[in-house]
Amino acid sequence: MWNIITILFGSTIRSATPLIFTALGGTLSERSGVINLGLEGMMTVGAFSAVLVSYYTGSPFLGLLGAIATGAFFGWLLAFLSIHFKANQTVVGTAINILASSLTTFLLVEIWGKPGQTDNVNYFTPWGPFNMFTYLAFILVAISYFVLYKTPFGLRIRAVGEHPRAADILGVNVYRVRYTCVIISGILGAIGGAALSIGSISLFKEGMVAGKGFIALAAVIFGKWHPIGAALACLFFGFADAIQTVSMSLGINVPKEFLFALPYILTMMAVSGLVGKSVAPAADGIPYEKGEK
Amino acid sequence: MTKRNISLLLALVMVLSLLAGCSKPAEQTPAEQTPAETPAAEAPKYSFGMVTDVGGIGDKSFNDSAWAGIEKAGKELGVEPKLLQSTKQDDYTPNLGSMAQSVDLTLAVGFLFEDAMKTTADQYGDKKFGVIDTVVDKPNVMSITFKEHEGSFLVGLIAGLTTKTNTVGFVGGMDFPTIHKFEVGYIAGVKSVNPNAKVIVNYTGAFDNPDKGKEVALAQHQQGADVIFHASGSCGIGVIQAADEKGFWAIGVDQDQAKESKNNKVLCSMIKRVDTATYTVIQAYVNNTFKGGAANALELGLKDEGVGYSDGGNNVPADVAAVVEKYKAAINDGSITIPSTREELETFKPVEIK
């Protein structure tokens, strides 16, 4: 019995790690009033660039830095289009997702000369039961909580997400706060992707993100736009995944199809509000126009 | 308001440019990569070609192996074979059709071709086709499948003799009969040499999720498994990586996977000679022994060297290899029949060979 619990525990944490980074990114972005629907794409480019840099330099640390740089760029792109040009955030986010998947598919063939997947690269081998990403994820949850709720900058973020006009009148630079948050959210999404490609395994594969970006977005809602809530939601989704991995080898007689679908069913329950009312930041998804009534 | 329009336009341009970007590789790949002209001087003119599945050439497995067999035949016959790559499943039928128009014998690998092959074989009734890993019941289609259970039995023997914890694992991809052949053969092999061993069986539900493969392997290892055989496509990359990290043995599949492991933790690999299969079809076509239809479908086993095991990492000790050879002989002379379904496994009596 004890053995089963440790297996479940380890598997839950490992499955949740990439989700936690991405969900923190989503929380931060939405708290400032921008819906980052491009998280899936940011995970994809992060996963790809981490492998790419690690492939050429042999260093997973540089790979992680590569992912961060790419994530920052894609975050900036989303910010530029949706804050500067006030584009529809859903459209821009979707465009980024399509861009990410086609760009990586294209570059994969260009660089490795074959479709499907890259060669094995150097990656973060586990320290103890988990790799570096897991520890980093939990540290970042604490930092996010601290920044959002215990610092003046966090107060500004929340103010900008709830009532940008009031914040603006009080001298907060709404655009700058939103830019910062969206770029950081791109970075966190990309780290989430890197946690998959050079953390869990050691290569990039087409479609490896497989909806994890959207599950992370569901975790943001499930966690009521709170970093700790979002992280707990990620752990819950990770647990659903772990049950699926472990139950078969324990001979628990649950239909496999149900287990494969479980994480998605839970996600749907989360977003349909079965877990209590979640209230989004008031200005979430609404572009801010200075001087508009 | 103009800003909003500009941004929408920009987003639209971005999406459109992507679509343009997507189509580029698709345009290139279906083009014939080796435009071949059979030398006019040669008396018997043969022409043949292959259509890949979405894995494509370069998958280090199925398609590469199939192509190797075709190239070998091509070299011997002085024919340059043609190749069409499929980038998506919708390409299968058109690609088979255009290949059939230009050559006499069209080969395709993978059970995903089953439906496309049925349609195309009807359309081009005067042409010949070969399909690997599935059976298509048409008079002009020669089908070749494998006795994966026999090869898996051999690696099961090795696993059963190697395990120190008396627990071994099996990681399957999708849960369907072809993969059950691997599972059942493996269990039969383990039980034959180590009747008390426990076999943990898991399916990842996919062939393309290394992350899941690794997670499943780690869970099996925590339950005591110290040898894990996978038949799960690229999920196996994760299984082998878990073996590298935790120091247990992994068993590869389809071709020798020893080089996938950094720490030489691939004990051996169960080999499936897809190249032999494609070569066999071409031989049959050249020697006029080509026979289509389900009744004439070939099933390549140990005897035909269609399946087997390989030890690219030199990890199988000589005494274990000797035991495997004895069982091989017994399978070849028919004194043992390896189960291929879960029902057959239940009635299978492990045979001990001294």
Automatic annotation (TrEMBL), chain A:
It comes from the Bacteria. Its main location: membrane. Gene3D superfamilies: ABC transporter involved in vitamin B12 uptake, BtuC. InterPro entries: ABC_BtuC-like, ABC_transp_permease. GO terms for molecular function: transmembrane transporter activity. It is found in: Cell membrane. The chain crosses the membrane at residues 6-25, 37-56, 62-83, 90-112, 132-149, 179-201, 213-237, 258-275. It is a multi-pass membrane protein. Pfam families: BPD_transp_2 (PF02653). Signal peptide: none annotated. This is Nucleoside ABC transporter membrane protein. It comes from Lutispora thermophila DSM 19022.
Automatic annotation (TrEMBL), chain B:
It is found in: Cell membrane. Its main location: membrane. Residues 1-20 form the signal peptide. Keywords: Cell membrane, Lipoprotein, Membrane, Signal. One of its GO terms (cellular component) is plasma membrane. Residues 50-334 form the ABC transporter substrate-binding protein PnrA-like domain. It comes from the Bacteria. It is a lipid-anchor. InterPro entries: BMP_lipoprotein, Peripla_BP_I, PnrA-like. Belongs to the BMP lipoprotein family. This is Basic membrane protein A. It comes from Lutispora thermophila DSM 19022. The lineage of its organism: Bacteria, Bacillati, Bacillota, Clostridia, Lutisporales.
